[in-house]
Specification:
This protein is an alpha/beta fold and about 425 residues long. It is about 40% helix and about 15% strand.
């Protein structure tokens, strides 16, 4: 009996794309029940930045379990939480001269977004939020209202109000002129626009197709938000935690978010964790317990997450991420040039790189071909036409090149080359 097909909900998705039962993971490799190995260029949709079962992170967790340490603690104080907070402040925030409070909530990215939206509305006393085309922010109703993809939105079965959609910089109708047009609407008393509580965005859109905003556009958006008295919420759930070659995706852009949402890679080994970074003047608007979550005291994630932060005590991992990202970008650029007549284009930042084929059916066929030849990736973007590559930041060079070769060969086969 196929227990999955017979008894698991029809909503299952990735198991249809990757029809294998995976039993083992080791850095950038997974092994199925038949002993076949796969090079993982999806890494749990960006959760496994430090690879599968990284011993540097696993061993402290094993020691913590054997010591009888508290596993579940709501938002009570534990040594594991204290050490995580201390390490994050000293390793990430202080060197960047960033001043934020750390807010823990239910351990999912969508809950982090819900908390951010709730706080922005409390701070400003406004209800409307501006989100952007091709943005993805989660599946609960508030976050889903900010998510652009109609496939996900249509499943809600209810209106998703209080969100104004505006073109992202790289999308049709986007750019600085578009932001100027939005400003004009807000500044016109007959423009029909309510001033927003916040603008929410990914500076590097992940699920939307790996679309990167420019520093000039981000700075213009920030100035617009400040002029309107609105907050900037940066969703760095998939693009943060080192993925782009800097800890935060927006570093160097001049952007200073009011709230930053983090999840996925923040927990280190794949155990659930989510956290918001909140400017102290905004955090002061919370009353105790106004946004709770039964599993916000994930001590295993605090232990593993604290160990993961050791990777950022120097620049070695980030430098390697930039170097490997350049290898990926060069490889994809070569494929894009080979199929320029078919409209292929490459883009990305750090170790989130993408190849847009412009054809969702083709990208699906390429994913199937790669799976059959031992490589995993996740399609994304409009119609699933974009090949998104998210290997662990710790992937060995040999496996990185091998995975890219498998991809290139699969594309050539599917293109009839």
């Amino acid at each position: 009996m196929d227990w999955f097909a017979t008894h698991e909900s029809e909503i299952r998705a990735y198991s249809r794309v990757y029809p294998a039962v995976f039993v083992k993971g080791d850095n950038a490799r997974q092994t199925d029940e038949q002993g076949k190995e796969y090079i993982d260029f999806y890494a749990g949709a960006g959760v496994l930045n430090f690879g599968h079962n990284n011993p540097r992170l696993i061993q402290p967790v094993i020691q913590y379990l054997q010591s009888g340490g508290v596993l579940h603690s709501l938002d009570m104080m534990t040594p594991a939480k204290r050490e995580f907070i201390k390490a994050f402040v000293e390793t990430i925030l202080k060197p960047r001269q960033m001043d934020y409070k750390l807010q823990f909530m239910g351990p999912t990215g969508t809950n982090a977004v819900e908390a951010a939206l709730k706080l922005a509305r409390k701070v400003t006393g406004r209800s409307e939020v501006v989100a952007f085309t091709q943005g993805f922010h989660g599946m609960t109703l508030g976050a889903l209202a900010c998510t652009a993809n109609s496939y996900f939105r249509d499943a809600a079965g209810t209106p998703l109000p209080h969100v104004t959609r505006w073109p992202f910089e790289t999308h049709a109708g986007g750019g600085l002129d578009s932001l100027n047009g939005l400003r004009a609407l807000y500044e016109n008393s007959s423009g029909g626009m309510q001033r927003p509580a916040a603008f929410i965005l990914e500076t590097l859109q992940a699920e939307g197709g790996v679309n990167l905003a420019s520093p000039a556009w981000l700075q213009a958006l920030q100035q617009l938000a400040r002029d309107l008295g609105a907050l900037i919420i940066v969703d760095d759930i998939q693009s943060g935690c080192g993925r782009t070659g800097s800890y935060f995706s927006f570093e160097g852009s001049g952007l200073e978010p009011d709230i930053i949402t983090l999840a996925k890679g923040i927990g280190g080994i794949g155990t659930p964790m989510a956290m918001n970074l909140v400017k102290p003047e905004h955090d002061a608007h919370w009353q105790p317990g106004e946004h709770t979550g039964t599993f916000r005291g994930q001590n295993i994630s605090f232990i593993a997450g604290r160990e993961a932060l050791r990777y950022f005590e120097d620049d070695d991992l980030l430098a390697e991420t930039r170097r490997k990202g350049a290898i990926m970008a060069e490889h994809l650029a070569g494929i894009a040039q080979r199929y320029a007549a078919q409209g292929f284009c490459a883009r990305g930042k750090g170790m989130m790189q993408a190849l847009d084929t412009g054809d969702g059916s083709l990208t699906k066929a390429i994913a199937r071909d790669c799976f059959e030849h031992g490589m995993l990736f996740g399609p994304c973007g409009i119609g699933g036409a974009v090949i998104k590559l998210l290997p662990p930041l710790t992937i060995a060079d040999a496996e990185l090149h091998r995975g890219l070769d498998i991809l290139g060969q699969a594309i050539d086969r599917q293109m009839g080359g």
